[in-house]
Structure formats: C-alpha cells, structure tokens
C-alpha cells in the first residue's frame, strides 16, 4: 500500500475509523483542557474556589466567573468555527470540575483531611450550558460574548446558592457572630492560610445595603464579556491550521 | 565491541529506570514544619514566646487540650519584616489534625486578624480539639501579613482513638444543632450531581453523533448550516430555559429553607488587651556578644544594674524559644520540650546575688547543641546579624523579672 492509498476499504470502515478518531480527540481534548484549565483556574481563582469561608457575596461572585470564562470561550471558538459543535463551554467546565473534584477529594480530604463540606468546588455548569446554547442559537461570537458572557456572570451566584446557603446560617461562637462557613475556616486549621489572606467583603460597594451580590454579579458579567472576546480570539488563533499547506485559514 | 557498548548502555538505562522507580516508593514522613529553616533573626527578633504550656501530651479524639502562654512583640522588630499590624494567632500543626475550638489574646476571642503593638506582651490561649490520631508536633504560631508565619516552640502530642468517631457539634442561631464535620455534605453532592447530569446529557446529545471528521468536512465545504437542525435548536432552547428555571427555582426554594443567612464575617480586631509584666528594676547593657562557631556557644558581656530593693540572679536566657537555664537559679517544671531546653546551658562568670544598687559586669555563656540543631547559628548568615532574647532574673522570694536584650553579634570561627 502506498502512502497515497486510503487506509480504509469501505464506508463502514471509514465510519468506524472516524468514530475512533472522535473518541481519541475527545479524550485528548478533555484531558488537555482538564489540566490546562485546572491550573489556570487554581492560579487565578484559587482560594475563592477552595474554601467555603472565601465564597462571599462580593469577590467570589466577581472573580470566579471572570477567570473561569476563559477556557470555555477559547474551546468554543475551536469547536464551533471548525466543527459547529456547541459543547465547548460545557466540556471545558465538566473537565475542570471533574479535575477539581478529584483534587478536592483525593488531596484536600484524602491527603490532608479537610472535610469535603469546606473545600468543594464552585458550580460553573449552569453558565456553561447557557453559553453553549446561545452560541448555537445565535451563531455569533459577539452575541455569545455579550449575552452569554453576561448570563455566565449572572447565573454564577444563584447557581451556587443552594449549595452555599446552608453554610451562611449564622452561629454565635464564644460571644461572636459568624457564619458556619467562617466557623469552618476557623476550626479546620490551615497553617499556611492565615485569616488575613482572605479577600472577602472588601471593596467600596456599600450603597446597596445587603443586596450586593446582584451588583457584583452584573459587574462580573460585564467583565466576563470582555474576557470572553479576548479568549475567544485566543481560541481561534490556536485553532488555526496554517501549518497544513492546503488548508490555510 | 560496539555490541558490548550498546548492551552496557541499555543495561545502564534499565538500571537507572529501576532506581528511579524504586525511589518513588520511598516517601519518608515529614514530621515537622520546617521551623528550623526559618531565618534565625526572624525567630530571635520578632515574637518571643514564653511561659508556654501544653496542657496534655496525649489526648483522645474529641477531647481537648490547650496551648497557653505569653508572647512579647519585640520592640526591635527587624526592618526587613513588616510590622505586625495585621497578624493572626495560629497553630502550627500538619493540617486539621486538631480543630481550633477557640483562641484568645488577652481574653478576647480572635477568630480574625489582630493588630499588635511593638514592645507589648500579650497573654494567649488556643483550645484544640483532637480529630486525627497520630503523633503531631504542635506549635504556637503567629502569622504576620508581609512577614510570613513566625513559628513558635513545638511539642509532640499524641492523639489516640479513631477519626471516624470525631464529631463537631455546633448550634446555630436558628436553633439547629448540626455536626459541622459532615453538615450539608449530602446537599453539596446532590446539587453537583444534578448539574453534572444535566451537563453530561447536553454533551451526550452531541457526542453520540459523528463528530470531528464529517463535521470538519461539512464546515470546510460551506455546509456548516446543515449541521445544526431545527430539532437541535429546540433541544438547545430546552436546556437553556431548563437551566434558568432550575437555577431560579432552586434559589427560591433555598431561600425558603434558609430564611436567615448572613454574609461572611471579616475585619481586623484592634486594641488587643496587653499583659502587664511587673516593672523591671534590673537594667542590662550588652557590651559585646560573640557566637563561637566551634563551641556552639554564645558569649555576652553584660553590665547589669540592680535598681530594685532585693538581690537578683540571672536564671534564664530565652531566644527563639530555646531556653538556656542556670539550674542553680531556676529549674523548669513545665515539661518544656527537651530539645528546646538547655537545663544547664547558661553559665554566668559571677552569678552571686546582685545586691540592690549594685552594678556588675559579667560574662554570660549560653551553650547547647540547640544552636546548631535549631540552626540559630545561621544568624551569622542573616542580612541583619543582631541577636535578641529575653533575660529572666529571680530574687530570693522567687519573683521574676524580664529584661530584653538586643545587640549585634560577632561570629568567632576559631
């Protein structure tokens, strides 16, 4: 068989090879995104995602969507413009969250014995699903960035509230009031993470009384729009095939 | 000859691989916290821990113990370390082997960061509840923003029992008593499982059909629009609307279930109550100080003046948690960690009682292997080669006075 001959001899074989190829690419994409996205998110979102006593209504709400819309935007750019597959955001976030769960369960709990109820990851899935659907329906990067990016920021806090709310029930402890999440952070000793490192409830957003979470979410959504644009272009750049002579684009 | 060379090369490579693989199975236990690696001047010239007491050396799971004592925030705080304006009273333990059931400075609970004043003494207590069985090195510790962790003396404590028996009951302000160890865990798993299921359903909807090769061909040949059908769009709408409905409904249901929630609590605690040490009537001037490297001994020439009304004797020199005692004056009865206690480590050229009004110049030697073991001798390699410590004097009635010393240290290599 010469190099120019086909490796398959029938349509059935071609379909089989194509499907095998699908699974190989999916596996590679999934693990590569899991690793890259996980490192990125841990470095940028880090403690806000690690600990319940960092999951506040200002900075967590603001930071987590902004730093996590990155890979979804880039992978969307590749999968949509090359393959018309509206799963870029969801597959990225699923990969990230599986990696996070492995990390939290194996390392945080299995290795250092922090209870899982203090170190579970944030839920980014609602925003990712909506981001994919908006891209599919609109077939527009601009629309996805503006509407999807905003939705991604807005859905984050309510998407996590059912998980985090029980830990915001107040408790009186030795004459001070704190939330159960604060108490977790105090009880479960982190030698290398002193209390002052926590960046929670800081800022000048004081004119909305107790309703700062929606304002933070809107701000996060606006910045997510910009970050979406930026990372979408990264994705398109990485998905270029200039190195293939007859498929330059 | 070439065959032999190739064989040797191949076998060497295999041997290297076997060695590296075998090395992976050797993982010795890290049993301390690197306290000896912290720069000596940091330990000597920032927080001076004294009168430390670990209430127990063995404690069953669910039982409590305390670390208590005092610390002096050294007035000669080094310029290279940020001032302790934002600090946190911590404990140096390998993860949550204990839970910190309480911590107090000057009687005030300190779950948050505090502001400390240079030159002041504070009394502290940390209440620990045993959680994970094992032998653990338990340190007092002060984290200083911009300065890092300043670790105090550590003592081995054994926790017995089983971690599965550990409980952490807490009563909320809504009257519910919960076990914080496992509280809301089912809820965490449930909601993450729900969203993973929805996300996997969305992925499966697309992944079940041929993906990359045929779709790429279609896109490349201008048939991209044929790849998304009206049915796909309907399913997509269903997922998007369903997602938003679930988010809204679950948030509403959560608010009904937990009507009382509060934001995370944060903020700096200022004005911590200081501990008033008895006014010292002894003054000490350091004429010179040298560290003799071969002898593992620090020698100081001190001019001591007794301005009080009773004779005093020098009984202890404490630096970086290492205590050098003159047993003729003072003996430890607190079960202080052996490795940090030089029971006969302090010698004074003339330690006869210093009469009221008398001034005397003496040679004081603090010698012990702890200088090397705790790497305090590395002070000579620090950027600010000054030593500091606490001198304790006793009078005949047993009254103790504390004096701080702070002076340049000259190494002697012969």
Automatic annotation (TrEMBL), chain A:
Sorted alphabetically, which Pfam families does this protein's record hold? AMO
What does the record give under GO molecular function? monooxygenase activity
> So where does this one cross the membrane?
21-39, 59-78, 85-102, 108-126, 133-157, 212-231
**Swiss-Prot/TrEMBL keywords:** Membrane, Monooxygenase, Oxidoreductase, Transmembrane, Transmembrane helix
Is this entry keyworded tRNA processing? Answer: no
Q: Show the InterPro entries listed in the entry.
A: NH3/CH4_mOase_suA_sf, NH3_CH4_mOase_A
Q: What is this protein called?
A: Methane monooxygenase/ammonia monooxygenase subunit A
TrEMBL record, chain B:
Report the source organism: Methylomonas rivi
Protein name in the entry: Methane monooxygenase/ammonia monooxygenase subunit B
InterPro entries xref list: NH3_CH4_mOase_B, NH3_CH4_mOase_suB_C, NH3_CH4_mOase_suB_hlx_hairpin, NH3_CH4_mOase_suB_N
Against NCBIfam families, the record matches this protein to: AmoB_BACT, CH4_NH3mon_ox_B
Is the keyword Ribosomal protein assigned to this protein?
no
Q: Where are the transmembrane segments?
A: 189-207, 235-253
List keywords of the entry alphabetically.
Membrane, Monooxygenase, Oxidoreductase, Signal, Transmembrane, Transmembrane helix
Top-level taxon of origin:
Bacteria
Q: Where is the signal peptide?
A: 1-32
Gene Ontology molecular-function annotations: monooxygenase activity
- What is any Pfam family matched here? Monooxygenase_B
């Amino acid at each position: 068989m010469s190099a120019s001959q086909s490796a398959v001899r029938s349509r059935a074989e071609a379909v089989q090879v194509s499907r095998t190829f699908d699974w190989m690419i999916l596996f590679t994409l999934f693990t590569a995104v899991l690793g890259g996205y996980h490192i990125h998110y841990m470095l940028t979102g880090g403690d806000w995602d690690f600990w319940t006593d960092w999951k506040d209504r200002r900075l967590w709400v603001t930071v987590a969507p902004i730093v996590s819309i990155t890979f979804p935007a880039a992978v969307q750019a590749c999968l949509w413009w090359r393959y018309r597959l509206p799963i870029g955001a969801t597959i990225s976030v699923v990969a990230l969250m599986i990696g996070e769960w492995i990390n939290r369960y194996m390392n945080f709990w299995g290795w250092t014995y922090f209870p899982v109820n203090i170190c579970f990851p944030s839920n980014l899935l609602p925003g990712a699903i909506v981001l994919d659907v908006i891209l599919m329906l609109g077939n527009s990067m601009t629309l996805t960035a503006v509407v999807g990016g905003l939705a991604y920021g807005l859905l984050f806090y309510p998407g996590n509230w059912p998980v985090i709310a029980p830990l915001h029930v107040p408790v009186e402890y030795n004459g001070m009031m704190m939330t159960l999440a604060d108490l977790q952070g105090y009880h479960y000793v982190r030698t290398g993470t002193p209390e002052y490192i926590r960046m929670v409830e800081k800022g000048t957003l004081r004119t909305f009384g107790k309703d700062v979470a929606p304002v933070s979410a809107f701000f996060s959504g606006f910045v997510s729009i910009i970050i979406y644009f930026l990372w979408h272009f990264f994705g398109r750049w990485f998905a270029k095939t200039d190195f293939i002579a007859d498929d330059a684009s | 000859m070439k065959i032999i060379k190739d064989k040797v090369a191949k076998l060497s490579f295999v041997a290297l691989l076997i060695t590296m693989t075998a090395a992976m199975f050797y993982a010795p236990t890290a049993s301390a916290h690197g306290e000896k690696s912290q720069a000596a001047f940091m330990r000597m010239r920032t927080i001076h821990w004294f009168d430390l007491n670990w209430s127990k050396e063995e404690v069953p799971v669910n039982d409590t113990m305390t670390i208590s004592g005092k610390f002096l925030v050294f007035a000669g705080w080094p310029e290279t370390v940020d001032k302790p304006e934002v600090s946190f009273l911590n404990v140096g333990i390998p993860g949550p082997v204990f839970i910190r059931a309480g911590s107090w400075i000057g009687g005030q609970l300190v779950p948050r960061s505090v502001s400390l004043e240079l030159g002041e003494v504070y009394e502290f207590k940390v209440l620990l509840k045993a959680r994970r069985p094992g032998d653990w090195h338990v340190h007092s510790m002060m984290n200083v923003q911009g300065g890092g962790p300043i670790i105090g003396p550590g003592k081995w404590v054994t926790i017995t029992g089983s971690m599965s028996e550990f409980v952490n009951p807490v009563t909320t302000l809504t009257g519910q008593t919960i076990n914080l160890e496992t509280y809301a865990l089912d809820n965490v798993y449930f909601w993450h499982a729900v969203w993973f299921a929805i996300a996997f359903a969305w992925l499966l909807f697309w992944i079940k059909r041929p993906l990359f090769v045929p779709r790429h061909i279609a896109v490349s040949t201008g048939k991209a629009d044929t790849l998304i059908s009206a049915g796909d769009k309907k399913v997509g709408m269903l997922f998007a609307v369903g997602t938003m409905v679930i988010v809204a409904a679950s948030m509403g249901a959560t608010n009904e279930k937990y009507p009382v929630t509060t934001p995370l609590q944060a903020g700096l605690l200022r004005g911590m109550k200081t501990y008033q040490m008895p006014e010292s009537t002894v003054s000490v001037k350091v004429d010179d100080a040298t560290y003799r490297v071969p002898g593992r001994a620090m020698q100081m020439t001190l001019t001591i003046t007794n301005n009080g009304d009773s004779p005093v004797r020098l009984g202890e020199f404490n630096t970086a948690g290492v205590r050098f005692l003159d047993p003729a004056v003072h003996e430890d009865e607190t079960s202080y960690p052996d490795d940090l206690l030089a029971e006969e480590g302090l010698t004074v050229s003339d330690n006869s009682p210093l009469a009221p009004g008398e001034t005397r110049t003496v040679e004081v030697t603090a010698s012990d292997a702890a200088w090397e073991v705790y790497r305090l001798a590395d002070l000579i390699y620090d950027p600010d080669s000054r030593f500091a410590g606490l001198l304790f004097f006793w009078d005949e009635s047993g009254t103790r006075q504390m004096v701080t010393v702070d002076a340049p240290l000259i190494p002697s290599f012969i």
